[in-house]
């Protein structure tokens, strides 16, 4: 695998792991639900495998999410930008934390606006 492809596979694997754990599923359970071997699921999550669309579709269906949600935050702006780093940090957190972070950001921005007045 090319370096960029390896990095993308690693980030996608991390995203799948986060979503799986958010659903309270083990690798074995995700494997059963998706019809994929448990070892293959582990390799995907470690970024060792280049996924097919079919496998991605099976995983998304098993997680109960649309296929495109697998790619949310995988490579939004690139890790070299501050916004990209923020998105990467957030993508590594459980989905439940996203609402908390959004509320916190809104509060901080509102506070900053009030301070300027």
UniProtKB/TrEMBL annotation:
The entry's keywords: DNA-binding, Transcription, Transcription regulation
Matches recorded under PROSITE patterns: HTH_CROC1 (PS50943)
GO molecular function, one term: DNA-binding transcription factor activity
SMART domains: HTH_XRE
Record flagged with keyword Hydrolase: no
InterPro entries reported in the protein's UniProt record: Cro/C1-type_HTH, Lambda_DNA-bd_dom_sf, TransReg_Diox_bact_type
Pfam families assigned to the protein according to its UniProt record, in alphabetical order: HTH_3
Domain HTH cro/C1-type: residue ranges: 16-70
UniProt GO cellular component terms: cytosol
UniProt protein name: XRE family transcriptional regulator
Species for this entry: Brevibacillus panacihumi W25
Upper taxonomic lineage: Bacteria, Bacillati, Bacillota, Bacilli, Bacillales
């Amino acid at each position: 695998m090319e370096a960029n492809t390896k990095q993308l596979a690693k980030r996608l694997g991390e995203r799948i792991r986060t979503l799986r754990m958010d659903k309270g599923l083990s690798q074995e359970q995700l494997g059963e639900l998706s019809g994929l071997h448990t070892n293959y699921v582990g390799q995907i999550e470690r970024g060792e495998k280049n996924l097919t669309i079919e496998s991605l579709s099976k995983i998304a269906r098993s997680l109960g999410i649309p296929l495109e949600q697998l790619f949310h935050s995988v490579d939004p702006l690139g890790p070299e930008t501050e916004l990209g780093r923020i998105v990467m940090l957030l993508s590594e957190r459980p989905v439940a934390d996203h609402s908390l972070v959004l509320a916190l950001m809104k509060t901080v921005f509102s506070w900053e606006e009030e301070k300027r007045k």
